[in-house]
Design a protein that fits this description.
This protein has 12 helices and 12 strands. It is an alpha/beta fold. It has 2 domains: 234 residues, Aspartate Aminotransferase, domain 2, CATH 3.40.640.10; 125 residues, Aspartate Aminotransferase, domain 1. α4 links the parallel β2 and β3. α3 packs across α7. The model has no long low-confidence stretch (mean pLDDT 94).
């Protein structure tokens, strides 16, 4: 597998090419918490430490990331593991002020209580002030929900030169759309609840790194904290990964079409999508991303307009989270994000693009009637 473009066909046959005669082609689901262990322990021993279904998912994710992976019961489980594995009392942490809000809550309300010095900066000006004093720099690009893009390669190099560690939340892009480890980032975290699982029915996350010592710390954190995924959930995400490339391609291609049309619609006051040539992040996004993603942010006149658009469009599910096969949208100000009252985060699903656009256009036209 090349570092620039994972060979997805290899993933589909990754397990199959190792099967013996009579083995099931589909991944078996191992529910057991105990394993037969006479004499000296060898192989799986206890369900909080080992599970063959987890290991199959980790093997697949490692193939995609081109790095060792550990899975967790949610994206925040993965983020927590990466932060607790790299921070200690007195450490200095830098996080985006406009990134995923739960990461900020964890940092401000819990890590500070353990003696970690937390600083926040906006994604658009993240490099201003430098990185001299930071032990860990947490990156999220594109930012959620504003879709600002951070120069991962430049920042990763600067932080490493100053003795720090970078962690990147790559949830919005997956390894198919952006490869932070190839750009020099030390650790990737992601919520596989989103497009890797893909069907809005399972929580999962993973940590990926090429640093063996860091991976050992992450694995130890999982063992002692008990932040383990269920085997059923691991099985579902493994199955979801097999269609990720097809779904992700459709979602990103459709998002490009829809973003271009939204940008010219009179009911829309602003659109952010890295694939638009006049987007502030476009040039950088083209340099470090292989796809422009399936998330679009648009701003409507006010809260009422946003709620009416979301709740009346028959091909939109009004729900939080993103990355499912069904297109969904939500007004992010309701969660306290620093955005306009009419700001909408739109997650484009796998519906035929012209049918989806027709539904969106009808809902937008109704705002002007």
């Amino acid at each position: 597998m090349t570092r620039t473009s994972p060979r997805f066909s290899d993933l589909l046959h990754l397990r199959g090419n190792e099967l013996k005669r009579g083995d099931p082609v589909a991944l078996p689901l191992v529910q057991s918490t105990m394993f037969h262990q006479p004499g000296t322990p060898e192989g799986p021993g206890y369900g909080r430490v080992d599970n063959p279904t987890w290991e199959a998912l980790e093997h697949a994710l490692s193939h995609l990331e081109d790095a060792s992976c550990k899975v967790f019961p949610s994206g925040m489980g993965a983020i927590s593991a990466a932060l607790f594995a790299t921070l200690q009392s007195g450490a200095k942490l830098l996080v985006p002020s406009d990134g995923y809000y739960v990461t900020r809550v964890l940092s401000a309300e819990f890590l500070t209580g353990f003696g970690v010095d937390v600083t926040e900066r906006p994604s658009a000006t993240f490099s201003e002030g430098g990185f001299d004093r930071f032990d860990v720099v947490f990156l999220e690009s594109p930012s959620n929900p504003g879709l600002d893009v951070i120069d991962l390669a430049t920042i990763a190099a600067e932080v490493r030169n100053r003795g720090g560690i970078t962690i990147c939340d790559n949830t919005t892009m997956t390894p198919l759309g952006q490869r932070p480890l190839d750009l020099g980032v030390d650790v990737v975290v992601a919520s596989d609840t989103k497009s890797p699982g893909g069907h809005s029915d399972v929580l999962m996350g993973h940590v990926a790194t090429r640093n063996t010592a860091l991976l050992d710390r992450v694995e130890t954190w999982r063992k002692v904290s008990g932040a383990i995924p269920g085997p059923q959930e691991a099985w579902l995400v493994h199955r979801g990964l097999e269609t990720l490339e097809v779904r992700f391609d459709r979602m990103c291609s459709s998002a490009q079409v829809i973003a271009e049309r939204l940008a010219g619609h009179p009911a829309v006051t602003a659109v952010r999508y890295p694939g638009l040539p006049d987007d502030p992040a476009h040039t950088l996004a083209r340099r470090q991303m292989t796809r422009m993603g399936f998330l679009i942010s648009l701003t409507l006149a006010d809260e009422a307009a946003a709620e009416r658009f979301i709740n009346t469009c028959p091909l939109l599910r009004p729900a939080t989270s993103f990355g499912g096969v069904h297109s969904s949208a939500e007004r992010r100000a309701r969660w306290g994000d620093d955005v306009a009252p009419g700001f909408v985060r739109l997650s484009v699903g796998v519906e035929p693009v012209e049918e989806l656009w027709a539904a969106l256009a009808t809902a937008l036209a109704a705002l002007q009637g």
